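A reminder from the course coordinator: this example appears on the midterm review sheet, so study it carefully.

Given structure:
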């Protein structure tokens, strides 16, 4: 009897496939087969079958399927010769709390595959034997594993098994190449690459093997294929190894067989941030050519020692941005490493973008995790220059106010090009940085008429004199010409002469108020003409848009600002967009040119009383606070009682029904939220700024937006203190302390919590005191002062119980369990975790429940019960994924990977650690990153890959030192020592063990004794 899972699920007797029945029964058999030889609890079976959301009676359904499967196996056993020791070859047994599927060594293809791979990857196995064993293992695969089974667990297990197959294939192919047998490689690697078209290691080995058998052209075709896949799906270029191979092949150089492929390196992201090109774009041929000569010189910039900078200057509305973006689109092929773009909003009267804020966007686009972005401007600029070093990128700095604003944004690499637009001449850049200046003037009359013709058609030629007059009245400025053209199009029955006369009348009235020949007066005349045609609501909405502090707004923002219905505002916006007074941008949001924003704000000051303007901003603040609260209720429903009570505004809220919608709204609204909280003149500062800060603190903590968090919380602290509210001040200090802890500034965090503790005790704020006590406990734990940490947590538990805060009590019990586990008081740790778990379940708090389950799983690993631990961690992982909690998902993956390493399932473990590492780096959580790196090193050591294991531990040690995390430092030393011990490097092993012993001793950790025993053997 054979059970086959490496393809469609089959139970075979001789050559006959037995009928397994309905899909759920097949899923039960698969869930048992995945852990063949190990007990699987009933809870784990239920989780695997229903992805953590079982129906009533789920256990009864499982019992029924188990009974039928046992009967099927018994009937099949009667038809075979008995198997080992007279037993059936596959047996389904009952164990305490669950079931176990037991099988002979070769009865289950997955078990057979793993056995062959383990033998073939043994460090002492000669290549001749290695290739035979691994090829036999790979030929057990018949297609997609568990094909036909649906659900998250099935997908997850397929991913893990696929990774094992890839690892085995890579090891086999490398052995073949070492043995000078490249002709065998394409047969197995080519179909696997087709299933995993983004795997650069597979592509590199296939290219090497094809080249070695004389098929260099086919190898180049492989490179072209993966390059297209990477560009289309990930917007990335191939990594260094593939590019090097391609260059060797393209140059005709012979590619000698490699003893060992170079380690794969992750290619940095290739940003593509250019805005949409302007259509139609008329004229400017001389300026485009001038930019090309300056930025793309004929000699390629040979001998340059700094980035080449060009600055386009000119009056407002002259088309500076359009010119820069158009040239960038024409030349983007010259910048294979990407294009960066930022609107610096230098002339925005309310919220110009600082260089520090711009650097956050650039560094994120360049792949720098949020938490690795420094706080100081100088440090950010240095990190930015490092990220650009050696890369060929175009950087567009649009709407700069001054040379001082752009100077920190200039790359140091001579391969980069910078294109700046500004109304200022930027003389300092020309003098100091050798910038090339392009002065942009108004369009000439011919190009002005050509633009009007492209916009309004044949009327230009039919009434040419009037069209020329219109162009002159618009000062031949593209912005004014576009707005005027829209007015002409909106009145097709009116002769062009009448419209020009109307515009002339507006210009005459404005001339009575303005003096001089500033071309901006012409733009204002066109704006005035267009504005005068608006109905009451669109006109009022246009004026209020000048008050909005953010760079853009959504429909519901503007409905709140205007105090009107969403439908009415939508209709008004449609008219403003048609009039080119407002732009519709990506994501259903709306923005406007800074010149129009200034004009709108002037009109608001002229026509709307101050009380109405303040009321509009208050409505916007109410709306943003309510939408933030609604989004947080979706993402963190169990913590609703910890956030301020917020009323739903009459204008309504955007759709925030799912986690995806909530996260998308928070991401889009973030610049507006920061700008609102930063307004010094905000009416009622404590009422809004503090409540926004305390509402969003969990979002900032979980997503890693620490720079925005510091801005919002700092303004909130100032607001709370300005109104003398000690409770609000204490709550904001908790938010600030948490951010400083996350970015590794432990001293600052301690000072903030100490300040708050004194405030809470002076005012009798027990819940606030408890919250700060447990935060101090976490800080002490991170510094290795476990006994003191436990004391703080214990005091916090008492206080939370005294005020009836079950959520706070559960959180602290969870934290306390971690500390007790670190000092190896396992009985007490289990007790705290189980108490926390019971509280979370009583509150229907899935996030807390998953956290407690994960912690219990970690503890069970320490106690050696890896199977039970895996069950807890799989349930935790399912919940974290369902909630979209990136940090929790990463920790559950990493801890599950540690558990799988303990079970000897190293390939699966490595896959989990890599996924966790990717998540932690994406959100910038460095503590999680160092743990995943150590876990990856341990898994790679188990797989017999010492060089990669050492590299992972070295990276973990570096990160742990940067954040002063001593536990993971010690773990990295122990892991490194284990690898060196296997390689018989006794001196190196002893050095690392001594380092670990010093750290564990300083931490007062019982693990110091384990390390001392290892050292005693030397």
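Designed residues:
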């Amino acid at each position: 009897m054979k059970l086959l899972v490496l393809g469609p699920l089959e139970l075979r007797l001789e050559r006959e496939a037995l009928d397994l029945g309905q899909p759920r029964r097949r899923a039960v058999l698969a869930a048992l087969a995945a852990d063949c030889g190990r007990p699987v609890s009933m809870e784990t079976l239920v989780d695997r079958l229903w992805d953590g959301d079982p129906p009533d009676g789920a256990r009864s359904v499982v019992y029924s399927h188990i009974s039928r499967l046992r009967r099927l196996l018994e009937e099949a056993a009667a038809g075979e010769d008995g198997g080992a020791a007279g037993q059936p070859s596959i047996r389904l047994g009952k164990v305490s709390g669950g079931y176990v599927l037991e099988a002979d060594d070769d009865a289950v293809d997955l078990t057979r595959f793993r056995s062959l791979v383990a033998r073939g990857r043994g460090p002492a196995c000669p290549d001749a034997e290695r290739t035979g064993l691994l090829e036999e293992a790979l030929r057990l695969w018949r297609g997609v594993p568990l094909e036909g089974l649906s659900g998250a667990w099935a997908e997850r297990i397929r991913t893990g098994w696929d990774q094992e197959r890839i690892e085995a294939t890579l090891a086999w192919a490398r052995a073949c190449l070492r043995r000078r047998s490249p002709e065998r490689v394409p047969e197995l690697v080519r179909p696997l690459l087709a299933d995993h078209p983004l795997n650069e290691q597979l592509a590199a080995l296939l290219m090497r093997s094809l080249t070695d058998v004389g098929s260099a052209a086919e190898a180049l075709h492989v490179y072209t294929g993966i390059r297209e896949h990477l560009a289309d799906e990930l917007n990335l270029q191939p990594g260094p190894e593939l590019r090097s191979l391609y260059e060797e092949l393209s140059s005709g150089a012979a590619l000698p067989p490699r003893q060992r492929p170079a380690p794969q390196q992750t290619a940095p992201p290739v940003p593509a941030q250019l805005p949409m090109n302007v259509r139609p774009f008329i004229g400017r041929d001389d300026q485009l050519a001038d930019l090309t000569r300056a930025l793309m010189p004929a000699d390629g910039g040979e001998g340059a020692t700094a980035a080449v900078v060009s600055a386009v200057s000119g009056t407002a509305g002259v088309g500076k941005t359009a010119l820069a973006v158009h040239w960038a689109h024409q030349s983007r092929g010259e910048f294979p490493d990407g294009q960066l773009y930022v609107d610096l909003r230098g002339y925005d009267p309310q919220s110009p973008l600082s260089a520090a804020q711009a650097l956050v966007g650039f560094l994120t686009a360049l792949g720098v995790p949020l938490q690795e972005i420094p706080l100081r401007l100088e440090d950010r600029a240095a990190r930015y220059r490092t990220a650009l070093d050696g890369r060929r990128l175009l950087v567009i700095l649009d709407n700069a106010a001054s040379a001082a604003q752009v100077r920190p944004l200039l790359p140091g690499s001579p391969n980069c090009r910078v294109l700046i637009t500004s109304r200022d001449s930027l003389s300092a850049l020309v003098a100091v940085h050798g910038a090339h200046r392009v002065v942009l003037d108004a369009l000439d009359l011919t190009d002005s008429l050509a633009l009007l013709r492209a916009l309004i058609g044949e009327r230009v030629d039919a009434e040419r004199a009037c069209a020329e007059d219109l162009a002159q009245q618009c000062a031949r400025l593209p912005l004014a010409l576009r707005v005027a053209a829209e007015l002409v199009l909106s009145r097709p029955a009116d002769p062009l002469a009448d419209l020009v006369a109307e515009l002339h009348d507006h210009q005459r009235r404005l001339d009575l108020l303005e003096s001089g020949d500033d071309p901006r007066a012409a733009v204002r005349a066109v704006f005035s003409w267009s504005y005068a045609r608006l109905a009451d609501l669109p006109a009022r909405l246009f004026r209020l848009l000048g008050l909005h502090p953010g760079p853009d707004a959504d429909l519901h923002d503007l409905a709140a600002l205007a105090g009107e219905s969403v439908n009415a505002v939508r209709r008004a916006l449609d008219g403003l967009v048609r009039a080119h007074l407002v732009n519709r941008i990506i994501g259903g949001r709306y923005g406007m040119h800074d010149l129009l924003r200034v004009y709108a704000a002037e009109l608001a000051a002229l026509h709307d009383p101050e009380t109405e303007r303040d009321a509009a901003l208050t409505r916007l603040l109410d709306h943003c606070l309510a939408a933030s609260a609604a989004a947080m209720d979706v993402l963190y429903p169990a913590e609703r009682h910890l956030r301020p009570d917020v009323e739903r505004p009459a204008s309504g809220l955007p759709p925030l029904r799912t986690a995806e919608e909530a996260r998308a709204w928070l991401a889009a609204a973030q610049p507006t939220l920061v700008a609102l909280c930063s307004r010094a003149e905000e009416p009622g500062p404590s009422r809004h700024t503090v409540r926004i800060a305390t509402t969003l603190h969990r979002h900032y903590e979980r997503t890693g937006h620490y720079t925005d968090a510091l801005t919002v919380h700092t303004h909130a602290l100032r607001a709370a203190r300005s109104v003398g509210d000690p409770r609000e001040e204490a709550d904001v200090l908790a938010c600030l302390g948490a951010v400083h802890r996350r970015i590794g500034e432990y001293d600052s965090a301690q000072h903030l919590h100490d300040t708050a503790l004194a405030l809470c005790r002076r005012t009798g704020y027990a819940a606030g005191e408890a919250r700060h006590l447990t935060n101090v406990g976490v800080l002490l734990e991170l510094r290795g002062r476990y006994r003191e940490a436990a004391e703080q947590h214990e005091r916090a538990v008492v206080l939370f119980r005294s005020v009836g805060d079950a959520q706070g009590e559960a959180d602290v019990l969870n934290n306390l369990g971690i500390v007790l586990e670190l000092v190896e008081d396992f009985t007490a740790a289990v007790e705290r975790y189980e108490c926390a778990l019971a509280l979370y379940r009583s509150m229907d708090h899935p996030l807390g429940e998953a956290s407690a389950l994960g912690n219990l799983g970690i503890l069970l690993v320490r106690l050696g019960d890896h199977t039970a631990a895996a069950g807890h961690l799989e349930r935790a992982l399912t919940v974290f994924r369902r909630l979209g909690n990136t940090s929790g998902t990463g920790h559950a993956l990493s801890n599950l990977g540690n558990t799988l390493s303990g079970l000897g399932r190293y390939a699966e473990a490595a896959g989990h650690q890599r996924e966790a590492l990717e998540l932690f780096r994406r959100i910038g959580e460095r503590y999680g990153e160092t743990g995943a790196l150590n876990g990856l090193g341990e898994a790679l050591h188990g797989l017999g890959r010492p060089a990669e294991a050492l590299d992972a531990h070295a990276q973990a040690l570096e990160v742990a030192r940067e954040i002063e995390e001593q536990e993971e430092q010690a773990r990295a030393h122990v892991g490194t020592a284990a690898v060196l011990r296997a390689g018989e490097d006794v001196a190196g092993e002893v050095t690392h063990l001594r380092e670990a012993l010093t750290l564990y001793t300083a931490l007062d950790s019982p693990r110091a004794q384990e390390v001392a025993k290892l050292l005693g053997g030397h």
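Confidence is low (pLDDT under 50) at residues 253-266, 509-520, 680-685. The two ends are 50 Å apart (CA to CA).
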